[in-house]
Amino acid sequence: MKPLRAGLVAFLLGLLFGGILPGVGSGAVISEVRHWSAPDHTRVVIDLDRLPAHEMQPSDDPLILRLHLSSCEFPKGRREVAVNDRIIRLMKIEPDGKGNVGIIVSLVKPSRWNLFTLRPYQNKPHRLVIDVFRPDLEEKEKADRRGTQALRTKQHRIVVIDPGHGGEDPGAVGTRGTLEKDVAMAIAQMLQKELDRVPGIRAFLTRRGDYFVSLDDRGRIAREYGADLFVSLHANGNRNPKVRGSSVYCLSLKGASDQAAQLLAQKENASDLIGGARGTIETGDLGSILLDLEQTHTINESLHLAGLALSSLKRVNRVQFPQPKQADFRVLKAWGIPSILVEMAYITNPVEERLLQRRNFHSEMARALSEAIRKFIPHLARREEGEGPGTKRGLGEAVPKRVAPGG
Question: CATH class for domain 147-398?
């Protein structure tokens, strides 16, 4: 019996220290390497079952980035990925056969980079993210947005349309595989065309393709455009496939209208965790900044716009709630800009998912929202005529008075 017992112990030790048992003594495993192209940067996403030790290694060539991952495997072997956008030419994934993996990124021009990690969230695994930015393209994007100041001097109104989600963050998913991010983009582009046909109105998008934009950056982009108003487009989701209807939401500084609105705000605010914004969602002193009369006035204007939107939407689809709802939506915190979030339909409802797949529904939805915006525009003129010296509007920004804590 003693030899048998000794043999069993030796076998178990061999399994443990030889790495035969799954997940014991083995390195991290890369399941996929993906990329998303934006106008001024490209995001590289590395999916892993765990986070390995990693570092960006120095390179003599300014057009080469080298990421080294220790104790790591890529079962698919050596691979080249042709990116061929304006930032990255090519990526190479190179396992060295000794339990390490190198990722080499060939750039179009010298760029700056930002490397960070994301822990698992919902269906997302551990992720290593490299954002590669071309400074010249970043400046061009900002200059183009700020160039809308010339339109404002010609008495144009600027509407910024925000197609929800994008890139890493697909949003809600229908039973037929319809993605919220795709539907939001399709209708946003139609709404932009509808508004651009209206004399005195120009519309712009916070994202122009399938890439991720953080919630805070969406508001920043709206301010750089000099937005007179901001409309964020979404398709809702629910575990109950029978739930359906369009709804419109505004920001609240005093808590949500009800629990359902609060849950929706939490879901939409989680976009940064899913899509991959660096760091955590923190409000900092945002609450003290927002708690002033100007922002409260802006929310009242947002509610007025939301009411007009609901009146138009009910001719296109069933309306879930007769009045706008309110909650702490991070994407609506663009100070001084009337802002609404439109849940156009439930992508998880079979009837409404089919609607969201139809181009004619996209067109009807865009026309309805365009009508509401056109009715709201004269209200802006009346507002500005009544503005006092405490409000400064330049490039669409209101400069709020800070409220001291406790005062």
Answer: alpha beta
